[in-house]
Write a structure and sequence with these properties.
Length: 306
């Protein structure tokens, strides 16, 4: 175990991501103290039962006082209010970061509240599951996953290096990019697939000619892989859609155009076009496995037949 990187880390929000950070910090000895805050007494009590931190408070101000690293782990729609609340209590020299799935909105909503002398560096670990709440967290969530940092112009390089070291110590690889680029990339790799999943599961649910029991019974034919995504937290995804509107709409319109082309190929019996596309996409899957971002085990590593 190495020397702690921070004296006191404050986690504002202790769901899947906050809980996973707390456990990674504990397991790797990255802080002397972990201060936890969440808005509901129930979640706070559960975090304490799970022994995720050293102090617990409904009042986020108590958590951020004297913290040298503050991480916002709440849905992005709540950022503005939380930032306004904690800003006057942030320690000079502290790093204020987050884990939100959208980044331009974070600069817009949090940026104006950040006091002078506090290092504001938005971040986004590209790691997660469809589960929510403190029980869903686990210490290895960030291992071999990317974490994207989007430091605003003029960010102190020492603060950036320290935050980079933190995520690397959690097992992640760190990339730096600007917020617009982040939001565009994430719109295609994360937000669009999520919307497609919500849509396809919704369509199946609305069908009258196929019964719900048949949808469930025969789901192993492909449908169930969409249902994993479609089971994700509705609050989080509502906030992502509202806060990455432009990039998502751009990707959705490209998707619709490509879907129309696919529709046309099927209508006209253009087998060659279909075969070419399906061959190209197979190559992408291969690259993802080669990059260590998934396993090539059948059914995404789930026990076969389950
Ligand atoms: P989660 O498990 O649902 O936990 C959410 C946490 O935020 C809880 O502590 C909850 O408090 C609190 N919260 C919810 N609404 C709030 C509000 N309006 N005001 C203040 N606090 C509120 O969520 P999560 O999956 O950890 O996601 C947290 C952040 O990580 C989000 O910004 C999300 O975009 C980002 N992220 C998620 C994933 C993923 O796969 N889930 C991946 C990467 C990044 P109570 O329980 O006390 O109400």
């Amino acid at each position: 175990m190495s020397e702690p990187l921070f004296d006191r880390i404050a986690l504002i929000g202790i769901g899947l991501i906050g809980s996973s950070i707390a456990q990674a910090v504990r397991a790797r000895g990255l802080a002397r103290e972990i201060a936890i805050s969440t808005r509901s007494p129930e979640t706070l009590a559960r975090a304490e039962e799970l022994n995720l931190g050293d102090s617990y408070s409904i009042n986020a101000v108590d958590a951020v006082e004297n913290a040298d690293l503050v991480i916002l782990c709440v849905p992005v729609g709540a950022y503005g209010a939380v930032a306004k609340w904690i800003a006057p209590s942030l320690k000079k020299g502290a790093i204020l970061t987050d884990v939100g799935s959208t980044k331009a909105s974070v600069v817009r909503d949090v940026g104006p509240h950040v006091p002078d002398g506090v290092n504001f560096i938005p971040g986004h670990p590209i790691a997660g599951t469809e589960h929510s709440g403190p029980d869903a967290g686990f210490p290895t969530l960030f291992e071999n996953r990317w974490c994207i940092l989007t430091p605003p112009e003029g960010t102190d390089p020492d603060a950036l290096a320290r935050l980079t070291k933190f995520w690397e110590a959690c097992g992640s690889n760190v990339d730096v990019m600007d917020v617009q680029h982040h939001d565009l990339v994430l719109a295609i790799v994360s937000h669009l697939p999520q919307l497609i999943a919500y849509n396809i599961v919704g369509t199946a649910d609305d069908l009258e000619t196929v019964t719900k029991s048949e949808v469930i019974k025969y789901s192993a034919s492909g449908f169930r892989d969409f249902t994993r995504l479609a089971a994700s937290d509705p609050t989080m995804w509502r906030d992502v859609c509202l806060n990455n509107k432009d990039a998502i709409l751009e990707m959705l319109s490209r998707f619709s155009e490509d879907l129309s082309a696919l529709q046309r190929a099927i209508r006209w019996g253009d087998g060659e076009a279909l075969f070419d596309l399906f061959t190209r996409t197979r190559g992408i899957r291969k690259s993802i496995i080669e990059a260590g971002q998934d396993t090539d085990a059948p059914d995404f590593g789930r026990p076969h037949g389950k």
